[in-house]
Amino acid sequence: MSDDAEQERRVAEVVRKTAVLQLPGMDRVEIQREQHYGDGGTFDLYVAASARPAPTVLFVYGFPDPRFAAGLRQMGAYTSWGRLLAASGMNAVAYSYREPVSDLAALLAHLRQNSGALGIDAARLGIWSASGNVPTALHLLMTQPPDTFRAAALLYGYMLDVPEAAQQFGIGVPARGRNIDDLPRAVPLLVVRAGNDQTPMLNVSLDAFVSAALARDLPLTLINQPGAPHSFDLFDDSDASRAMIRRVLTFLGERLATSPSSTK
After folding, report:
1. Which of 3, 128, 186, 225 has the smallest C-beta neighbourhood within 10 Å, fewest atoms?
2. Residue 117 burial by Cβ neighbours in a 10 Å radius (0-12, 13-18, 19+)
3. Residue 147 CB-density burial (10 A; 0-12 exposed, 13-18 middle, 19+ buried)
């Protein structure tokens, strides 16, 4: 197999991978596809298995490359996590974009302005972001009013200090030049660390963020998954990975005031 063919095979495998946890009702989740926002943007709304309006979790993406912008929301990671969140009583929003920062702001404005029609409780919004997308999620927290979000789950991600080694991945770093003091002090953060993450300098970035957040006494929950690889929720089919996914769902559910029993 040629190098190009092997690379294509690996990319296809990543695109197909879904979360290793299944919850009752996931296969019956209603998905309102191709909803429109802003200037030509679209999003999919995974409808919560609960009374409406429901708390809502926004997936946040941060890769400027157009190849990612169009297709991230269709990856198995997001389709499965969208169903997991909906089955746990929370709406989930996955979207396409052209420019990560401005389109994300336009999407958020659309969700808030049309919350009634969409069945969204605009007072109970959360963030889910992972890997190279996390710097954009942090920028969103820094640039929105401090009461916009009730919680953010940040999984195995580069944080504020994105090293040069990560630039090869095309990661957007909109918060460059900002620091931990720019984060809202009242928003609970869940940071999930993969103990055996081999992504270049990722855990160095994550560990520095955690140290700074603790030094400033921010509402931070850190969970280290010992020995876990990057994207373990997709690639490590183990009881430990499934337990971690449940902990993320419970964190968001509790902070957004859904019943923790829905994630058991």
Report:
1. 3
2. exposed
3. exposed
